[in-house]
Amino acid sequence: MKEVEFNLLEEPWIRVLLPDCGVREVSLTDALLHARDYVDLAGELPTQDVAVLRLLLAVLHSVFARVDVAGREVPLYYSAGAPRPSTDEALARWQSLWKLGHFPEEPVREYLARWRERFWLFHPEWPFWQVPEASVGTEYTSAKLNGELSESSNKLRLFPAYMGVGKSEMDYAQAARWLLHINGYDDTSAKPKGKGLPSPGAGWLGKLGLIQAQGNNLFETLMLNLTLLQDGESLWGAPRPCWELEAPRSAERVQIALPDNPAELLTLQSRRLLLHRDGDKVTGYTLLGGDFFERTNAFCEQMTTWRAVEGKKDEMTTYQPKRHEPSKQFWREFPSVFAQRPNTRPPGIVRWITRLQAPGVLCLDRKSLVRFRIAAVKYGDKDFFVTDAFSDELSFHAALLDELGKRWRLMVSEEIDRCQSLAVAVGHLANDLALAAGNRAKTLPQGAKEQFYFQIDQPFRQWLYSIDPEREEEEERESLLAWQRQAQRIARDLGAQMAEQAGPAAFAGRSIDKEGGKGKKDGQEKAFYSTPTAYNRFLNQVSAIYSAGGGA
Q1: Full-prediction pTM beyond 0.90?
Q2: CB 225 within 8 A of CB 38
Q3: What residues contact residue 85 under an 8 Å CB cut-off, 6+ apart?
Q4: Residue 272 and residue 282: Cα distance in Å, rounded?
Q5: 191, 138 Cβ separation under 8 angstroms
Q6: Strand 306-309 relative to strand 14-17: parallel, antiparallel, unpaired?
Q7: Fewer CB in 10 Å around end: N or C, the chain?
Q8: pLDDT by residue (tens digit) across 179-203?
């Protein structure tokens, strides 16, 4: 068996989507240099695509933070003895790459050739994304490495996606993809080998409410997420990806300083890993906890949503990454992600896209559509195991993010608040109908809310997609009123359907002790529940939701 094998710069392993909807495996070099020829990444899971995307971005940051499009050495970070760069230079470099329409071959190939020895999947000293010292870590089979299974020896899947040898081994290309994934999304089940060590928690990507910009092809996606300015405002430090370290970090569970450059963050080694192979197949791996840092105010991370954490008196509000909920459509997060409400912080990638189309910059056409995608895993108790992986996407006019679109962002946020109120009203109706029928199932209101959000999901996305902040005020008003009428109609139709299905017992109704009246003797207060009274109450609630805010 060769000690040095499978170079990721030359061997095909990254799955890409072709224009004809076919899928092909290509090398890391090919994925970058021919990115415009591929529609998107096409890994086994959306979260795997995130991990691969961040590796490609780390390479691009490492190259174009140092050289311009022509390959001339002009750093975008402060370097002793060199002129201090400006934010305008960073924007100009990004714009020149965007206009070129592909990544220039010479500087990319020159950089990758310099670090070629660090990209061997199997190497006695520098195995890619691994460290030999991880051999003493917790042992897992390839079934745990495979994110579609995430199956440990004491937690077997009842209906797994793979069977037989598909669970017990994988080829080098597949192992390379899942290697990136397990580093970013690993759970907390592995126990430390050393004593008294801190807990790093889940992998860094698993802690995030990850969000990325999406282009029309892989080149555009990479470019839109190539944040050459932090939060669209300030320059980064010098790039330090993991393969440029003089020696790989191998100590277990190490708390490091917050990275000041995206290349270091994008290649964060959350886990110490070492693949095991038998012949030409990977059969498992060993794992130790790796690098971590304090996630409070970790604003170097550009690809996450944030949640405010209120401090004590006279203490400033801090922010931590806010995970996505698999049961919550992405558009319902619009107010906190795009609208800049009080005590919210937009993701860095949103600030960056906004800067790219700002007056005087105009790297992006304000009339174009922008897409944002989220991808995440859902963990079980205390992040001890992975239960689900999910993704969602949202599209709207780029102008919605700039100053002209500010009024529309507020309107969209208000409509989402109204949708939430409608869902609550639907939930109340479900509860009242259940009481009228003699059913006290506590899950009925939540199920009704989910049904409402399911029915309103596509109509809301279509309305958001249609919004053009540059339209005339009269058109704007009519578009808003049309949407409000549609939202109310969806809620009322669902309410009517629920009332029809409540049954004859609910229609006849019954008197029930009011909450808090249980145990009282004669004269205790009662409330009467029936389908007609519940439905009329619901219709009044729907009308009040819009009349109170001056809606339709």
Answers
A1: yes
A2: no
A3: 74, 75, 76, 77, 78, 235
A4: 17
A5: yes
A6: unpaired
A7: N
A8: 999 999 999 999 999 999 999 999 9
